[in-house]
Design a protein that fits this description.
single chain; 187 residues; mainly alpha; Four Helix Bundle (Hemerythrin (Met), subunit A); two-stranded antiparallel sheet; 2 strands; 3% strand
Length: 187
C-alpha cells in the first residue's frame, strides 16, 4: 500500500481510506471478568486468617490485613457508586478504612466476618452492574463529585484504575497473610 503508515508494527493505516471506527478498549463484561478474578484471589488470600492474625501490622510500618481488606471494600463502594449502585457499608463503617487512615490501638475496625460479608455483597452487586455497562456509559466522564486523581477521565478509565488499585492491595493481603504466619494461598 503506497502511502500507508505503519504504527508500532501492529496497524497499517492507509490515508486514502476512512479511519477505522473507534471501539471500546474494554467492555463492561471485560471489567466484570477482571473483578471476578480479583474476588477469587482476595478470598483465597484471606481464607483461614483469624481475627488476631488479621490485625498483625508489618514492621516498621504499614497497615494490617484487616485494614487492607476494609480499604478494598470501601473502594468497591466507590466503584458501585460509579456504576449506579449503593455502597455496601455505611460512611461510619468506612471511615477507618479511607485513604490516608491508619488504624491505631483502640480504633474500631470491623471484624473479618463482617468485612468478608461486605466483600461478598459488593461482588453480588458489582458483577451484574459492570456486565450491563454499555460502551456509552463507560465513555461518560467521571462525575464531578468523584473526580480526583486517579478518578479522572471516563468512567471506564476510572474503573480500570480502581481494578489496578484492588490488585495492588490484593498483593499486600498475600504478603500480610505470610507476615501473620500463614502459608501463601496462591502458588
Amino acid at each position: 500500500m503506497a502511502g500507508a503508515v505503519r504504527l508500532s508494527g501492529l496497524y497499517t493505516i492507509d490515508p486514502k481510506q476512512s479511519p477505522p471506527k473507534a471501539s471500546a478498549i474494554m467492555t463492561g463484561s471485560d471489567l466484570a471478568k477482571m473483578f471476578e478474578f480479583s474476588y477469587g484471589a482476595v478470598n483465597r488470600n484471606v481464607e483461614g486468617v483469624t481475627e488476631e492474625e488479621s490485625l498483625v501490622k508489618p514492621q516498621p510500618a504499614g497497615n494490617c490485613l484487616n485494614w487492607v481488606l476494609g480499604h478494598i471494600v470501601v473502594y468497591r463502594g466507590m466503584i458501585l457508586t460509579l456504576v449506579g449502585e449503593v455502597p455496601v457499608c455505611s460512611e461510619a463503617q468506612a471511615a477507618p478504612y479511607r485513604r490516608g487512615s491508619s488504624p491505631s490501638e483502640g480504633d474500631t475496625l470491623l471484624d473479618m466476618a463482617t468485612l468478608r460479608g461486605y466483600f461478598a455483597d459488593s461482588q453480588q452487586r458489582l458483577i451484574p452492574a459492570l456486565a450491563a455497562l454499555s460502551d456509552e456509559a463507560l465513555a461518560l466522564p467521571v462525575p464531578d463529585q468523584h473526580k480526583r486523581p486517579p478518578l479522572t477521565g471516563s468512567i471506564g478509565d476510572a474503573l480500570i484504575r480502581l481494578h489496578y488499585h484492588e490488585g495492588y492491595h490484593n498483593g499486600q493481603i498475600g504478603l500480610l497473610r505470610r507476615i501473620a504466619g500463614k502459608d501463601g494461598a496462591i502458588k
